[in-house]
């Protein structure tokens, strides 16, 4: 929560993502992505016990969320999303701060993610945050029409707290 306040965002509430949140999560997911995660993807992640959080604004509106999959000494960031109307205000970086905090709390030292090769804005955010491009996954992301899109694999070393 403190990272959100430090970034001059409106008063926010951070909570663990729960199944009742998924109606709003899915609405944001559909606004944010041409090929969104499915409701089942979120349900499966929550059922597996993956760490996941939602961030709500002053009127309890959903501003963003993230879902990660822990592994041995690492966390794979599966989904990080800022509601389109809140993009460009520093919330993505604040969410990354929350993800790094979750890694530290679990003693995880490596953070991984994939990002669409064409998502320059997100790639710039991740690079500024300190992620390094370490690989490419060919035809990783589905698209509405045409060939699948490549993903850039990125990694960040998480220092202990």
Describe the structure.
The chain is an alpha+beta fold and 161 residues long. It has one domain (2-157): 3-Layer(aba) Sandwich (Aminopeptidase). Helices cover 32% and strands 34% of the residues. The protein has a seven-stranded mixed beta sheet with strand order 1-2-3-4-5-7-6, sandwiched between helices. Strand 2 (52-56) and strand 3 form a beta hairpin. The protein is globular.
At the fourth CATH level, what is the homologous superfamily? Gcn5-related N-acetyltransferase (GNAT)
Shape: globular
Low-confidence stretches: none
Radius of gyration based on Cα positions:
15 Å
Helix and strand topology:
Elements: H1 2-6, E1 13-16, H2 22-32, H3 39-47, E2 52-56, E3 62-71, E4 74-82, H4 91-106, E5 110-116, H5 120-129, E6 132-141, E7 149-157
Parallel strand pairs: 4-5
Antiparallel strand pairs: 1-2, 2-3, 3-4, 5-7, 6-7
Quick summary of this structure?
The chain is α+β, with helices and mostly antiparallel strands and 161 residues long. It has five helices and seven strands.
Which labels suit this protein?
161 residues, alpha+beta, Aminopeptidase, 7-stranded mixed β-sheet
